[in-house]
Amino acid sequence: MYPIVRREQFSETSFLWEVLAPDVARAAQPGHFVMARLYDGGERIPLTVADYDRDKGTVTIVVQALGKTTREMRDDYREGDDFDDFVGPLGLPQHVAKVGHVVLVGGGLGVAPVFPQLRAFKAAGNRTTSIMGFRNRDLVFWEDRFRAESDELILCTDDGSYGRPGFVTDALKDVLERDPPDLVIAIGPLPMMHACVEVTRAFGVKTMVSLNTIMVDGTGMCGSCRVTVAGAVKFACVDGPDFDGHAVDFVELKARQKRFKTEEDAANADYAH
Ligand code: FES
């Protein structure tokens, strides 16, 4: 069993769990993900690692309550509760090296998995520019943590209620024009990552994305997380989740992400809360 040693609510739908899992914490690196399962027979949920503390033996995940299981996580599990499975770290870690100027873009919940990458690129001696994007002020989290690791921080809200008004792609374009980066990392909803990739493509700047595909086993067996990268079939769970965004077939991936929508809608409707 895995105890939740800390829980923090960021907004009505988003929250953080710090989970005691010493074996996972010992091996976790930026870019890794974990598979959580609440109880026997429950759904397996892939979650990108948002932080880890090897001394405390904890791993932090940030969750958005959108589907049945993530709403159960929000409504039924409190600090001190425990749950059945926390498997990981899975996937390949991000390749972190000193490349010069790195721009890290996080959209919504994607801000969380960007954080360990930001910290690692900073520690590797890079100059870091962070672009954080949220729909509105109420959804903002970890501004202080990002400020501490960033040479420049640009915080955007879609509705202009805090920071720079508008989308992360506009801020990204500005940075590309005035202070060209050597590498861009973009993590967030698929449409946001796709849009970032199209912005950087025109500037020829390498852009890594973290693909939050539908996953079932997380070990390369089921094919659920299949994605086409540079014309070849890849599995996000074992070949990723980080890929060169300019090589990803986002149009195909967006279509594949919708294939369980009927079942997801039915499970959500059945959920009593
Ligand atoms: Fe099954 Fe990747 S989740 S192959």
Automatic annotation (TrEMBL):
Organism superkingdom = Bacteria
Coiled-coil region list: none
Q: Give every Dihydroorotate dehydrogenase electron transfer subunit iron-sulphur cluster binding domain span.
A: 212-249
What protein name is recorded for this chain? NADPH-dependent glutamate synthase
Q: Which organism is it from?
A: Siculibacillus lacustris
Q: What is the lineage of its organism?
A: Bacteria, Pseudomonadati, Pseudomonadota, Alphaproteobacteria, Hyphomicrobiales
**What's the name of its gene?**
gltA
Which portion of the complete protein is shown here?
1 to 273 of 999
